[in-house]
Design brief:
The chain is an all-alpha fold. The protein is built from three helices and no strands. The protein starts with 10 loop residues before the first helix and ends in a 12-residue tail after the last helix.
Length: 68
């Protein structure tokens, strides 16, 4: 069984990932995997409503929630 799967992403997502990857010495694939890992971990604590509130400017992200 292959260790990888192909997925289709928008051109904008690919452009963003490529730009971010260049700044961090990652490949585009590594950058997308990095974002996926961050999202998976954040999703355990941060709700969609939390994200929307921060993006709308009606809340701030409290990083103390993420430390032991």
């Amino acid at each position: 069984m292959p260790k990888t799967k192909q997925v289709q992403l928008s051109q904008e997502m690919m452009r963003s990932a490529t730009a971010a990857a260049q700044k961090t010495n990652r490949t585009t694939t590594e950058q997308i995997e990095h974002w996926a890992i961050l999202g998976r971990e954040a999703n355990k604590t941060i709700t969609l409503d939390d994200v929307l509130d921060v993006l709308c400017g009606i809340a701030q992200l409290n990083l103390e929630r993420f430390t032991d």
